[in-house]
Write a structure and sequence with these properties.
Helices cover 35% and strands 19% of the residues. The protein is α/β, with parallel strands linked by helices. The chain is elongated, with a radius of gyration of 20 Å.
């Protein structure tokens, strides 16, 4: 039984969330709170297995509540937010920076056309996130790492990145360290709840020195620009100059899929590709990373200690797809070294 604390200021939404969660035999709501301050006190008193966290609340918002909970009694936290309230998105992603694991869309009511889909995602996310072991602060181990093996004989010409659970914070850490003159185009798939990708890109842009964009169909690839897959579309590199979007069936149960992106990069660039697989639950991206590896590209996977969820990178390692396994804080310097070799 997963013991859940609901932190939500709206009595109507609070009751709806409790009804949804208690309808699942594996979940039990042990308490509710109407603001962040009350949520922090309830978390300390009840020690739940997971907390659902609203963002815009009186007394104390969801970011500050998340920060205090992760400092005092680390607990898996899932942000439940409305995708249409754009003013909440910076706070939402700052809550992820503070330690929240994921963000899901707030249910709009039983009569809403997407209620069943939103309900299922909420329940699934809670069950998965309740198993994640969280710590007071994200660990960073400055241990020596082996050199990334040289692959093929050609310099890199594109960087592809895939991430899922824990990815927003990992992407922020990586992208903000890339210099403004980074000479490669960057293509990214990050699994996000529908409606939050644009907000994620805006949040990442606050610290990134590279221009970040939501990819468009038939968009021309430009060096030094970062392209994200939009909600509900696979992102593919159609040629060395053009991106494409498609609504082909999901791969590994997701769309956009990291594997779809990586396989397209392998076809277009072969040994000139660099691919990075970051933290995430499941196996998406591992098979695609193997394709790039087998074609002579450089392949990196985030290590277990620095992952929020060591799922996708772990599968890649088991497949022999990762040329090097690195802590998060070593990935950007490694990319810098690879680019310097190119120059």
């Amino acid at each position: 039984m997963i013991r859940v604390l609901i932190v939500e200021d709206s009595p109507t939404v609070r009751m709806l969330l409790q009804t949804i969660l208690d309808s699942d035999p594996e979940i039990h709501v042990i308490g509710t709170a109407a603001n962040g301050d009350e949520g922090v006190r309830q978390a300390l008193a009840l020690r739940p297995d997971l907390i659902t966290m609203d963002i815009r609340m009186p007394v104390m918002d969801g970011f500050e509540a998340t920060r205090r909970i992760m400092e005092s009694c680390p607990t898996p936290i899932v942000v439940v937010s409305s995708s249409v309230e754009s003013s909440d998105l910076p706070i939402t992603f700052n809550a992820i920076r503070a330690g929240a694991l994921d963000v899901v869309e707030k249910p709009a009511g039983l009569s809403h056309t997407d209620f069943a889909t939103i309900r299922e995602r909420l329940l699934t996310t809670i069950k998965l996130m309740a198993e994640v072991k969280v710590v007071r602060r994200h660990r960073s181990r400055n241990r020596p790492d082996g050199a990334v093996p040289a692959r093929g004989g050609k310099p890199p010409a594109i960087l592809a990145i895939g991430a899922s659970t824990g990815g927003p914070l990992a992407l922020n850490t990586l992208l903000k360290e890339l210099p403004s003159d980074f000479p490669l185009p960057v293509v990214v798939v990050q699994h996000m709840a529908a409606g939050f990708t644009q907000g994620l890109v805006g949040w990442l842009q606050l610290e990134s020195r590279l221009p970040l964009k939501i990819a468009q169909h038939e968009q021309r690839i430009v060096r030094g620009e970062v392209y994200f897959a939009p909600d509900g579309y696979h992102l593919e590199v159609c040629s060395r100059t053009t991106l494409g979007l498609s609504q082909a069936p999901p791969v590994s149960f997701v769309r956009p899929s990291v594997t779809v992106l990586f396989e397209s990069v392998a076809r277009a660039y072969g040994a000139e590709a660099i691919a990075v697989l970051l933290t995430g639950m499941g196996e998406d991206g591992a098979a695609g990373l193997k394709v790039i590896h087998d074609r002579g590209g450089v392949t990196l996977a985030q290590d277990e200690d620095s992952c929020v969820v060591y799922g996708m990178p772990a599968v890649a390692v088991r497949l022999g797809a990762a040329g090097a396994v690195l802590p998060l804080d070593r990935i950007a310097p490694t990319l810098h070294d690879l680019v310097q070799l190119r120059r």
